[in-house]
Amino acid sequence: MPLLDRYTTPADRYDELLAANGEPRPHWARLIEHLESLGPRALQEARETMQRQIASNGVTYNVYADPRGADRPWDLDLLPQILPAEEWEEISAAIRQRATLLNAVLRDLYGKQELIAEGHIPASIIQGHPGFLRNCHGIEVPGDIHLHFYAADIARSPDGRWWVVSDRTQAPSGAGYTLENRALVGAQFPDLLRELRVQPHNDFFQSLHDALAHWAPRDDETPLIVLLTPGALNETYFEHTYLARHMGIPLVEGQDLTVRHGSVFLKTLGGLRRVHAILRRVDDTWCDPLELRPDSALGVPGLVDAARQGRVLIANALGSGLIESGALLGFLPTVCEHLYGEKLAMPSVATWWCGETAACDEVDERIDSLVIKHAYGFGAEGPVFGGDLDAKALAALRARIHEQPRNFVGQEMVRMARAPVWSAQNSGLEPRLTGLRVFAAATPNGYIVMPGGLTRVAGLQDARVVTIQRGGGSKDTWVLGAAQEELPLSPGARKVPAAVAEYDRSTLASRTGESMFWLARYAERADCGLRLLRSGLRQQLSADDSEWPVLLAAGLRCNVIAFHDKRLSPQATLLGALKDRDHPGGPLSNLHNVIRLARALRDRLAPDSWRIYNRLDRLIASWGRGTHTLSDALEFLDQALMLMITLSGYSMEQMTRDAGWRFQSISRRVERMQFLAAAFDALLVPESGTPALNTLIDLTDSVLTYRRRYQRAPEHAPVAELLLIDHDNPRAFLYQIESLADHVVLLPGPLPPDIQLPLQQLATRLLARPAEDWISTPRHAAELRALLRETWHAGNTIASQLQNRYFNHLTTRSTMS
């Protein structure tokens, strides 16, 4: 087999692909046969297609201090990890048992603490654990479920047995990436996916959602479930947005929530809405600055008290990170036999907690063959391999352990299994270390396990640990269907309850509404600025400087050009404005703000629109590199405007007409109204010089409309008619005012007082005389300039009123409902 020519694996490790005789294991045989039939070129093309899709979808994992920046592309291998159905059943049963056990341990440790009293768990492990939240002791959680969502990192030893390496009980990550891996890899092998009857896992998340709704304290209300994220800077933010969108629940940050009278509320555009369940991705101590960590800006003040009063379900329960301690691993077998009378189906890797004298002596004796870890997961350094240390370093490590023995554990080093990855460099397969993260969710009928999970792959062939945070990658995990099963490729249709709760259109977080408002505002600012610069550069391309003085005045007045150096040529001034990243009003600055807000709104953006934002982001990055000619600048402007138009069209044609869409429409109208007011002031009725009619028509994208309607060269009166008072021209000044007034009245709840009156008055005054009269005499032109400037200020007033009413909640009282 040519693909396996360079595939070798050490004899002291289990190989997922090859059996002891060097032949592919039976459950891998069909995949290898399929890969051979495709050939290296097709496989490399498939890998490149998948990588483009990852970039297009914006699948990221933000590794701290990574030179590739905050948006490191997700690393996914083309080949899946394959597990037969029989083996998966054993893994699944063991994970269900372990999740049930850990939930019981949490219930006891935050309750009666009988396991401590009876000596099954040393008191010093718990009482000295930084993750034991004393504030949460005695809190009764809904359904006695502390552990709603659980993950176990498991690895295979050389004899083929699976071992638990660590437990993830606080805010497990990776499940969203598992879904995306299936979509990406499955798209490359769709027929094989069907032929092998790979078990789907979409139903897992619906079951998790249904379970949270089941246990949520609802008081006969329709439960509102939210996903709490630390924010867009978190390394797994992509996953947070992905899961929120997949589960159909709001993605919120701590500032979006407030606690009133023991209940948690979401700050929405329609007021306060009670939250019944929180699926959190914020670590324990950061969740409440009042009772836990006072310097936290990620949590919700009063959240612990809301949990204490039983008014909200928190998944996982606060304090569940306690179980992640490696110090507990050695005591779980005894606890399992004590509680259930059975052995752990999947044991943990041999672990010695140095807080016990006998265990510490064992670690001391075997230190050169063990991995030394911090017992509570808070160490600044990673695991220390005793075998790597010289005598002096070993002595120093021993001294540290003996100084604070309870802070350390010694763990047997597992020679993890290897699995094949596609190597573009060698055009074949090569082995890499792998581990598997398996996910379980609590339901009223017990724990369920997601078929498959997240296979993690070491980044280098000689790596000894598997961690994505240190440059590793991932695989899709295929669990094959049993021979007698006919597994569906997608979840079956669910029965819809006869009475479905009415959709609440106002349940949009105020911060989200504000972000949508500013996203569209920055987008319109960028669009207008790009058009102005393009119009000026087009004139330079035709060597026509006749309208440059007033165009420069428009650029300065619209804040597109920061300043004018008289020593610079018009072309240099325009190119400088286009490359200026620091000027707040410049197009590049506005485009960066568009991308920043799009990331914060990712859960609200459909995949198709996100791909456009992603393309825009890459275009901006490419423009920032090297020197550029006039032709380069015009090409960049055309591409950027095309993407902005596409995004605007998507908003118009695809978005539901809810409050978020309404705010985007309003902000666009406000911004365009202000831009036109400033531009017309400089270009249509300049205080000195002649009007720049060609520039004005080009700037408002009205060249074809003007030619078709008037069939003459640009003249003052018809240009003023088309661009000032045309009710049907979406680039006309009057159109912005009337459209803005129409949108404002449809906002939820009581409106700020007299918000419509200024718009109505402006429209009435604009229509008081024909367009030609506005520019017929210097006196009328001065009146029009005054009206334009008054309109510009009115835009700021309206934006401030909306900000205070809907986002800051300064003008009305929120109601709790």
Automatic annotation (TrEMBL):
Can you give the residue ranges of the DUF403 domain?
A: 508-807
Top-level taxon of the source organism: Bacteria
**Membrane-spanning residues:** none
Start and end residues of each Circularly permuted ATP-grasp type domain: 80-458
Q: Which InterPro entries match?
A: ATP-dep_Glu-Cys_Ligase-2, CP_ATPgrasp_2, DUF403
Q: Which residues form a coiled coil?
A: none
Q: Pfam families, alphabetically?
A: Alpha-E (PF04168), CP_ATPgrasp_2 (PF14403)
Protein's name in the database: Circularly permuted type 2 ATP-grasp protein
